[in-house]
Amino acid sequence: MKRIAWVAGVLALLSLAGVGGAGWYYSGMVIDPSHGDSYPLEVVSYDGSQVTLRGGGDTDATGTFGLTWASGNALLGDVVARGPGTVTRKVDAVRRGTLEPGVRAYLDRWMWGHENPRSAVGVPYRAVRIRSELGDFPAWRTEGDGSTWVIAVHGRNANPAEALRVLPVFHRLGMPVLSITYRNDEGAPAGPDGRFHLGATEWKEVAAAITYARASGATGVYLYGWSMGGAIVPMAARMLPDEPIKGLILDSPVLDWRAPIELGARQKGVPAWLASVGMFVVERRTGLSFAELDHVAHAEEFTAPVLMFVDADDQTVPVGPAVEFARLRPDITRLFRTSGAGHTGSWNASPNAYEKALTDFVTRLS
């Protein structure tokens, strides 16, 4: 009996170690930075006006997109045909490089890859550095003669180029834009532990950007965040109630991190209980509190108007928390919905309507 009990104890310890190891691995998928592009799509054919692509999970997304590969970029239009494992789309233009069979690429919601504002959308800019508590952070600064600035905050493992789609709107309105980086971004200072804190510390770079803008003549700012940037921006608003924040613009925002983590677990076939273990490990490894990061639960703390863009077919960040936030705070929230374009794809699905909503929002409040 003693031997059986000893064996059972060892098996229990091994089981716990296995669960702990799995939780550690899963937690790393949430908080460990990962830089560099991946190219899940293969160009099967290109005839000068249409391209057929194989691979990826969102190749037939609704709207206009970029197709970006290591040495080039093209602009894609509507889906023309679907085949077994392939999608054929209209090609509006090949901007750089050679599009040919065998090229590995990705569907680019930013449209222009990692180009700069001048080469991509014709907006003058300069590279600047913003001093935060960890050092100097690179950023793009576009020019404008207005005193209301926009602080643009990209998503997880992204970079300032995520803001390219909307820079022309603000340039026409005379509003300077700071498209910033934050800790653990490529080319930016790392955080003390080298891990993402999901907005709990990254908001300090937003605070530094506001300080930079005010020192440069800004009297008010809009905070604009995509995806994880849409978690950082609300945290900044909560932490900086005395700053002149005129409004929040959130695109596919992570308003409650538990929702995308649980969705990602289901997509990977991970049991729900293991996702919970992963979140527990995240909290232990970082000192974070998912309850504190839940902006829906803290909806009453917000005072600035909010414009939110969500796509019903977002397979990365569930739209439920955003919809619930809008329900709780209809007094300050405008919700712009699209479908078929996926995560951060509302502009791609309907650029004109998106830009009109954006323009109406900022001009109404200016």
UniProtKB/TrEMBL annotation:
MF terms (GO), sorted A to Z: hydrolase activity
- InterPro entries, per the entry: AB_hydrolase_fold (IPR029058), Peptidase_S9_cat (IPR001375)
| Domain (Peptidase S9 prolyl oligopeptidase catalytic) ranges | 194-346
- Keyword line: Hydrolase
Q: What residue ranges carry the coiled-coil annotation?
A: none
Q: Which domain of life is it from?
A: Bacteria
- UniProt-recorded name of the protein: Alpha/beta hydrolase
User: Which Pfam family, just one, is annotated for this protein?
Assistant: Peptidase_S9
